[in-house]
Model the fold of this input.
Amino acid sequence: MSDQIKAKVAAAAEESASTKKADPKASSVDIATIQMLAKAQRDNVETIFDRAVSMKPCNIGEQGTCCKICSQGPCRLPLPKKGIEGKDTRKGLCGATPETIAARNFARMVAAGAAAHSDHGRGVAEVFLTAARKGTHDYGIKDEQKLLEIAPDFEVPTTVIVDGPNGEKIEQMRDIYDIAEEVGVKALGQWGQQDGEIYNAKRAPKARYELWRKLDVVPRGIDREIVEIMHRTHMGVDQDYHNIVKQCTRAAIGDGWGGSMIATDLQDIMFGTPYPTQGEINLGVLKQDHVNIIVHGHEPLLSEMIVVASQLPDMVDYAKSKGAHGIVLAGMCCTANEILCRHGLPIAGNYLQQELAIVTGAVDAMVVDVQCIMENIANVADCYHTKIITTNPRAMIESGHTTHIEFDEHNALEDAKKIVKTAIDNFPNRHGEAMIPSAKEKMVVGFSYEAINYHLGGTFRGSYWPLNDNIINGRIRGIGGVVGCNNARSMHDSAHLTVVKELLKNDVIVLTTGCNAMACGKAGLLSPESAKVFCGPGLAEVCETVGIPPVLHMGSCVDNSRILMAATQVVKAGGLGKDISDLPAAGSAPEWMSEKAISIGHYFVVSGVYTVFGVGLPVTGAPRFQKHLFEELEGIYGGMWDMIVDPYEHAQAMIRHIDKKRAALGLDKKKERVLMDMADRRQLEEVA
Ligand code: NFS
Ligand code: SF4
Done:
């Protein structure tokens, strides 16, 4: 150890001696996490787990009733200890009620979450347009079929009528790049559109789209609805929580059915639509004798190029020239989901494992772009040899020890090579032997809604009907969408796994994305073999027959749009009602932490899904606002929010809702299988 490093470790030790330490075994259910947290503590490196023990959250903020949007505040309106007796007289200086304050805070979370997803989507649309115009060698059109499928949604024709040799009219395919350019222009236009409706709103089931129109919540443009939240929640503007929630709805639909959905679609067209593939997950994917690069963050524009760069023979040779046997490229957070689902590349871990990956001492570079990147990785990296490389002009870390290599899409591969080379150059700087946990799991991932169509429907007109059929005959009780983050206030991965296992046991098939997908992967739930271990008999039978895992990994959080499309396909396949709100389905984010999760939660709710959050929701200090979200929205949208911390109760509430919907569909009684009759077909046509 050099003197400089010794001094740093001593300083870190002094700092961490003053803070309490987390108990590793009480911090996570994941063995690799427990081992690395113990190592961090032996190395005197402080992590988020330790800070969560020494710093308690603010009680008033937790209730959602702290207002700091003007300098007369912060006005703090906690619930009185005895509860509200009689009339609630709490007010901010300006008179703002707890409801107004909590609703404004909630709306700003929706705005930030929608902005994060949508700004990601905008970047994708920009690069897509550059690729369509052949302005870059590094990106192109990979999935033409998907482009042809989405072009009509943007009112872009895929064929053209030309004159034949004898003057007759012939319909011809348009050039694929011409179609792409027109789709790119129209997609990009969705952000700045000022009036009318975003195109994708019409993708929802007809009944849902009509409901949104009737309620006047179809987004006019993606950016506009986000900006309007910021305006309405400025001091002294919108002071009716019902009306604030209505604007949340516009912005959230603009996220789920707008920015996020466009991001997913255009990424699929440029990089390929995911189809089932194998992968591995957990810190055990790192290798002692390889250069280990972790790509962490969210945007596949960067990681796709690093995938290419890390596999170039001259890069691999360069790594060997430095004494390594090769290069391991592994992902973290949603970037991981993106490269896993498309290339089968390994995942090092989910959100709460980012510091711990560095603690292995085996990570030569952690390359980050945007979102969910903890500032503390720079401090942890300082105690080891890891280079943190920031790449996005929107996201830098104030630290003398991070390197910024800006990633420019026009020069993508060259930038990616520079990044990989920096990692390789750092390999000889390791501080002796690394300690890599052995834990890793195999998994089958990549269930885009197109892949589910194919897998469950077979080749005959690929369809969701077999899934519906199994829901109708009761082998599958319903569908659970379980998604979202880790949260240091909640035992790592524990609530995720309890909720998912409880659903499986009760024959509820699970669709997953984000950090929940990774928790499931680490616990072996993404393997087809897990069906007979964890599922009730009906679901196990279906999974074993079709050969799918009982938990279907659909991608990153932006890809929650795939869940919306899957739900829409289920409605359109028939037999389960006319709208998403009729389906025996429920959503869940057991360990949420990011504002993006709130935007996702809200677009699920207003798309008709009962959506339960764990950990806590900052609405409890405003009872009337909470009632609006948890109860009244059901009467308006057919979906509503809920918050249940206990993961077992959380899952039971989802199952009760699923049963309620089954009863409404008349599926609670055992029914003989019937073939679709004319009435069913007519209903199908009405829905589509
Ligand atoms: Ni989603 Fe993905 Fe994870 Fe949460 Fe963060 S990585 S975008 S926000 S923490 S699931
Ligand atoms: Fe206080 Fe009203 Fe200002 Fe909020 S807007 S900080 S409640 S005075």
Notes: Residues 446-664 form a domain with the Rossmann fold fold (CATH 3.40.50.2030). Residues 67-70, 72-75, 92-94, 96, 101, 235 surround iron/sulfur cluster (ligand 2) (CB under 6 Å). Residues 161 and 171 are 4 Å apart (CA to CA).
